[in-house]
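Notebook entry, structure prediction.
Reason for the run: the old model in the group folder had no record of what sequence produced it. Starting over properly, with the input documented here first.
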Amino acid sequence: MKPVTVRMSLLCAVLLLGACQASDPYSLAGFVNLPAAPDVQTDVRYFTTDNFVGEAINGYEASLIYLTREAREALQGVILDAKVFGLGIKVFDAYRPQQAVDHFVAWAEDLADTRMKAHYYPNVEKANLFRDGYIAARSGHSRGSTLDLTLFDLASGRELDMGTPWDFFDLTSWGESDAVSVQQRANRALLRALMTKHGFMPLREEWWHFTLENEPYPDTYFNFLVR
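New structure, fully documented this time:
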């Protein structure tokens, strides 16, 4: 191949790569992936049928966790501090496309579909999910700096007992609920302390839910796919 042809081929390859990167919504928004590691577990249940809807959720085309670069950097401090206690973090969800939230809304409006009630909302009538704040038309997750997580023991790989499962629609899921045991409250308090130390704000009603206080997109709700 002639030198000029080689140079032109390389130039075309570079330009093509640059165009692909420029059109990548994650790069444009400054989002990064959180890969699994010895001290980080991921369990993206919205990509599966094991969630309160009972089916894979729109917008989740891969079992991946994305979040803003700022949230990822803050989370690294949490990971390092948790390791001091012999613990790691297990993340269930972070960035959530708006279309996934729309899927939740459509499901909540279908009162006949209660297939997952026994597992996720046994004490709440589905007709009251909007009124009680469990389902809303928008979610902080779509801004990219909110995540749902728990702690796990590095030696055994088992989650700490938080008193309720993740995404359990019930008053017992409130972070400071006194309906759970002393040990379960202590586990929740440890998670909350680790997260708030590194700039994350807890949600009172969900022990697993935290938002970066200085999030870069406080008013922007993204809708690109998780893939």
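Summary: The mean pLDDT is 93.
The old model has been moved to the deprecated folder.
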